[in-house]
Structure formats: structure tokens, C-alpha cells
UniProtKB/TrEMBL annotation, chains A, B:
A Pfam family this chain is assigned to: cNMP_binding
Keywords: DNA-binding, Transcription, Transcription regulation
The protein's name: Crp/Fnr family transcriptional regulator
Domain HTH crp-type intervals: 161-235
Domain of life from the UniProt record: Bacteria
Organism: Salinicola lusitanus
CDD domains xrefs: CAP_ED
Length: 256, 256
DNA sequence: AGAGGCTCCCAACATACGTTAAGCTCGAGT
DNA sequence: ACTCGAGCTTAACGTATGTTGGGAGCCTCT
């Protein structure tokens, strides 16, 4: 499969971390060769992170943005009585806090939900690139708009579907987003995220999360391990999750 | 009160519909006098709408944006089995579909949830203003980022709080947003939205919506009629809704 | 003023999901 | 190979909320 060799390419360092960002932007907006060169020249300060240590904390005023290079991060907020809602999950190529470019104060926390590596880019560098190549500025704006579109879809998911459907829906979403950056391996993908974290993303308890995974497995839709998710029946899963990929605004929507 | 006379000013047509948009942008971003003039010159095609008729439908590709002038509109999505999730409520001054500027296909529906009047502005006119005054482009980008911040907060609300807290939270939010455009009347505001609509915004049934309103009234936090909401105890309401206005990113956050 | 239609309210009952608590499994480290 | 802890699973029981259905209040139109 082309996808799994892409993973290997990344491992062997023959594609640079910036290429994931480029791939992501290409998946939602046309990017010229000159713009690609500009993106490739962006300085990335690489860091390895483990769950439990925030990347940016609520209330901070960051002066840089973060690009996910490997692993998964999430956006979350807490209620005063200890509840945690995860409201976004990021895959490699995403810029989780791109909004900090124009919204000074962070109104959410950003944290790894698997061990992961990220790259930091100073705001001013991004600003410079946008000034020189206005179409890249539009691409980044578009990126933030798609983030919002995903928020909307999650709200539909959490507000109107039962837990079973919510999980099916998210798995479909992750499958498509990972495929867009070439990180699926056939009909499965690496996803070392605990059920407790997922529960917080669905607004359910971790006990119920376990129940639902069990039901999905029993019905032959999914096969889940601690590190991977395998889709056994894409059509049924899409049906169960009432999934329509329009909201991802990908240039070309191919099923897995 | 200054607020209620503002309402009268609007009635008597001594402020133009564009002024609400200007007021909204000023509440989140500095706007120069020259920029104000440019905004005032934007052509607005006015329309009166009733609930039940969509403003823009899912899947369409609008060539104009809509500004709310009076009343309330909402963004919604449907599940295949008939559920409806309202994921945003707009107050006068808001541009509900500003995202259509850079995201061709609508991935949600936009509809009035009270009788209301809106104004339409062609995309190209907005584009021109942004090209001439880049800071206005940034202000609009910022506007879309704040929309996203509100989505995030709603997700926390729906995913982690019980219905009682959800309702308290939203009332706090509406109070502050309406105050920012001068549309509160002391500690109350006009809000002719049915409980069935609100139920769809909270992800609960309309029966439960009624229960919760009853509880809020019984505890002396709120007084609700078909057309108005009056906050009886702002501090308690804020407490009950676990409300922190940071996410609204208003320039100055004054309590009601 | 009466009829019809929304909207809201209330009561009885059903259920998806939360909570608690107890084992179990797996992988990391010695 | 053994230990230990984090994560997962299962069961029993409690509750917030859904559903159904009936009735009361309140507009609007005739």
C-alpha cells in the first residue's frame, strides 16, 4: 500500500516534518510550488511530548504555533466540577492552535493524547509568509474555518446521537483525515489513545466507552487494540455513524 | 437606561442597519474612522423572515453573506433519523455565514428562530473592503475565530453539564453578547424563541426544556415569558452555568 | 366570541448512561 | 520471569433525561 510506505518515508527522514503541513494544506486548498518552497523553509523547533504535559494552557498568550508531526493531540476545556470535554483531536499535519495568531488569549488547553512530536513556528514567521503569499493566508483562514466545521459536526454528534453512533462517526472522521495525509494502513490506522480520553471526547463515562467499543466489535464493525483501530465494515460503520464527509471540506473525498 | 434608548434609536431609523455590524466588530477589534465609513457604505439588501423558511440551506454555495439586523437566527444540522442540533444562535450584528467567503459549500443550514430582519452583502463587496482595508480582513477572520470559540464552549456545555447548567450558561452568554451591541434592557432582553428550538440547541427534549425552565424559575434565577428573559440573580446564574466570558473575546467584559 | 392551532406544562413510565467497585490483562521495568 | 501499575472489562444499581399522551393557556383568524 502507498500509505504504509509513506509512514516509512517519514521514519527514514526522507520527507521533512514540514511536508506534513504542506500535505495537509494541499488537501484543502491549492498550493503553488513557490508557496511550497516558502512553507518548507519555515523553521520548525521540534519537541517530543507525552500525555499529561500540556502544550499550551488555557489563559496563556502564545507567541508561536504548533504543528503536529507524529501522534495525536487534543483541545480540551474543564468545568469547575472536574469534567473535561475534548473538543478536537488533531492528526499529523494539523496546526492545533493556529487561532492564536489572531486571538490573543487561549480559551482552551492543548495537550497530547498519545506520545507525539510537534514542531513550533513563531507567529511572526507565519505572518511574514502570509504577507508575502496572501493565498497562503487564505489557506490558513480556510484551515481555521474547517476546524470550526468539525466543531459543528462534533456538536451534532454529541447532542443528537447515542454513544454508539458517536463513536462510529469519529472513527469514520479519523479514517478520512488520516488518509488525507497518507497515514492510514489499508483499512486500519495507528491510534494509541486511551478509552478514558475518548470518553471525554464523546461526553460519556469511560465505563460506557468500553461498553460501546464492545458493541461495535460484537457487531463486526470495528477491531480495536490499545494501539490500532481496524475498520472491518466501512459501509456499515458509515451507516451507524450517519457519516457524511462534506464537513471536512477535503478537495477529493475518497472512501477508505 | 442607555440600552433601551439604543433600541428606540434603531426603531426610529436614526442608526442604519450597518451600524449594528460596526458595533459588533468594534466590540471585538479596533476599527478606525475610515474603516467605519467603508463599512457604512456597504450595500445591504434588507429582508424580513419568519421561522420555518431557511436563509441558506445545507449544500448550497452562497455568493453573499447575511447580517442579522433584528431578531435571532441559528445554525443547525440534521441527523438522518430526524434529530436537529442547533449549534449557534446569532444576535443582531452577527454575520452567521461569514465562513461562506472561503468555504464554498455550506455544511449547515441557517434559519430564523424568531421573526427577524437580515441584510445581504455580496461576497465581492466584502472582498473589496478587505483588500482595501486589510485590518478589516483580520477583524473578520477574528470574527470567525470567535464563532469557533463559541462552538467550543457549547460543546463543553452539551458534553459535560447537566441540562440545568446548560440553560443557565446560555442565558449568561446571550446576556453578554446582546449587551455588547446595546440590546439589553436592564437585566432582561427580548427573546421570542420557542422552547422546542432551545431544546434542539441543548440536545434535550422539549419536555425536559420545560422542566428545566421551571426549575430555574423556582430557584429564583430567571423569569421567562414567551418573548422575554429576565435575569433575577446574575451571580447565582453565572454560578449555576459555570460561566466564564473569556471565550467571547470581547474587548471589555462588564457583567450585566 | 368561537374555533383552531401552536406552545407550554404535567404525570407516568421507559431507558441510555453514570457510578461504584471489583477483577482482569497487558506491557514496562527490574 | 516476576512485579507493579495503568488501562480495560464486567456487574449491580441509581438517575437524568426520553417518550407518550393528555390538558391548559394563549394567539390569530373568521
Amino acid at each position: 500500500m502507498a500509505q504504509s510506505s509513506d509512514v516509512n518515508l517519514l521514519m527514514t527522514r526522507s520527507i521533512s516534518p514540514n511536508d506534513l503541513l504542506i500535505r495537509r494544506l494541499q488537501s484543502i486548498h491549492p498550493v503553488s510550488n513557490e508557496e511550497i518552497r516558502a512553507l518548507r523553509d519555515l523553521p520548525l523547533e521540534i519537541a517530543s511530548l507525552e500525555p499529561g504535559h500540556d502544550i499550551v494552557r488555557m489563559g496563556e498568550r502564545p507567541t508561536q504555533c504548533c504543528v503536529v508531526i507524529e501522534g495525536f493531540t487534543c483541545i480540551y476545556k474543564l468545568t469547575s466540577d472536574g469534567g473535561r470535554q475534548i473538543m478536537a483531536i488533531h492528526v499529523p499535519g494539523d496546526i492545533p492552535d493556529i487561532q492564536s495568531l489572531h486571538l490573543g488569549v487561549m480559551d482552551f488547553g492543548l495537550a497530547p493524547i498519545s506520545s507525539c512530536t510537534v514542531g513550533y513556528i513563531p507567529h511572526e514567521k507565519i505572518q511574514q509568509v502570509c504577507d508575502t503569499y496572501p493565498r497562503l493566508g487564505v489557506a490558513l483562514w480556510r484551515e481555521t474555518l474547517i476546524d470550526a466545521a468539525i466543531y459543528r459536526d462534533w456538536m451534532l454528534n454529541i447532542g443528537q446521537r447515542e454513544a454508539f453512533g458517536r463513536v462510529a462517526h469519529l472513527v469514520c472522521e479519523l479514517m478520512m483525515r488520516l488518509k488525507a495525509v497518507g497515514l492510514t494502513e489499508g483499512s486500519s490506522f495507528k491510534f494509541p489513545v486511551t478509552q478514558a480520553n475518548l470518553a471525554d471526547a464523546f461526553g460519556i463515562s469511560s465505563v460506557h466507552m468500553s461498553r460501546v467499543y464492545g458493541m461495535l466489535a460484537k457487531q463486526g464493525l470495528l477491531l480495536v487494540t490499545r494501539t490500532h483501530i481496524t475498520v472491518l465494515d466501512w459501509d456499515e460503520l458509515q451507516e451507524a455513524g450517519d457519516f457524511d464527509p462534506t464537513y471536512l471540506h477535503l478537495e477529493r473525498n475518497a472512501p477508505a
